[in-house]
Structures are given as C-alpha cells and as structure tokens.
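User: Can you help me understand a structure? I only have the sequence.
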Amino acid sequence: MPTIMITGCSSGFGLETARHFADKGWNVIATMRSPREDAVSPSDRIRVLPLDVTDAASIADAVAAAGPIDALVNNAGIGFLNALEGTPMETVRAIFETNTLGTIALIQAVLPQMRERRAGVIVNVTSSVTYKPLPLLSVYTASKAAVNAFSASVALELEPFGVRVRVVRPGRAPETSFSDNARARMGSGFPEPYAELVQQVFARFEQDTGPVTSAEDVAQAIWRAVTDESSPADFPAGADAVAWLQGS
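Assistant: Let's start by predicting it. Here is the structure, written out as tokens:
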C-alpha cells in the first residue's frame, strides 16, 4: 500500500487527515513536533514520528525513518493575529520559519526519492485568507501566500518527473485550536491605537454565523488532491473558503 507523510498531526486538520488516509488503507507517517500519547494512536496503519519543520536535522531524521514516501502533506503551521506595528520581527521570522521555510525544506528533503521514482504527490495546506485580505493577519497571510506562489512555480519544475504539486486552502475552522493559538500569540497585546480595530475584528469573528470549514472538509480535500490526478492545482476546502473564492 502507498505511504503518506503528514505534518502537524497533533490535532485539527493533520489528525483528521491521518485518520482519513488510514481508514482508506494507506500507510500513514503522522508527524508532530512533540509526539503525544493522546494524539494519534499508533496502529498497523499509522506510525508517529517526531518532526520539527524548522530543524534541518529533525527533517533529515524523519525522512530517513519514514522510508519511501508516495505523498507528502505539508500541514504544519502556526497562526498569528496582530497589527503589524505590534509584531516583533522575531515573531515575523518565526511565522515564516514554520509556515513557509519549513514547507520548502521538507519538500526539498523528499524530492530526490520522488524524482528518481518519477512519481509522487505534494500537497501544501495554506489558507483561504489568501483569497481575501483581512486586517490583523498580514504576516500570517504573507507566509501562506508565499507558499501558494512557490507551489505554482515548483509544480512546473516537477511536472517532467511525474511529481504533482497541489495547494489546498482551508477556510475558518472553529472546531480546531488554531484560532485560539493565533490569539494567544499576540503576546503582551496589541498597540493601543489599534484597540478599536481589534475589538471590531474579534466581534466579527464571534458574531459570524456563516458557513465554516470542518477538519473533515480538509481531509477530504487532501484526499482528492492526492488521489485524483485531474484535481485542480489549487482549490478551497470548506463552504466558507469556496464562498471567498467566488467573491461572495
């Protein structure tokens, strides 16, 4: 059976995707920065490996331990919400290290084996916020938009070798811990001149009763991206993401 490596499997999209592929009979390498017994339960279909996408040695160890990889899903990411003026540059670098550079580094690590076999699929999970500009998300959006652009370009490089690249853009997923973590990373808070804007943004989040994205939506989108050769190179996951793409 084919093998898929998925990053960021401790919760949310990554966890659901690992379960989805295992249920479909795939061998799953579920990775996370700090493996926990209460996260993915190892089984004959799921193997848990430690992986910090910002650490070159960790990437090398995980790829070596995984063995042949037929599909790679770059799902690991960190959210961030704050005004740019209140965002230290070290925080900006940390966001890009995980969301952008970590994705690129892991792809670079698995490419030789896929190129040699002339087969493989890479799926990069970004965000629907790259469809529509929103305040307080400039750094996060930039880190994900960079992956979108990178993916479109590297897909052209890899096409002659039979390696497909896909982008999946999830919408807002209240059921995951992503939003809470993004707010927590505001640290000591936001600049006082932006207080009114921040309150307005939070109020909109809390009052929004429109469609949202579930972890299952994302797992199904990733399944399509991996298994359907005719799938779009870049597509939304979740009703709200679809609506944003369509401009509604």
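Now, to help you interpret it: The domain at 3-245 is CATH 3.40.50.720 (Rossmann fold). Residues 79 and 179 are 7 Å apart (CA to CA). Let me know which part you'd like to focus on.
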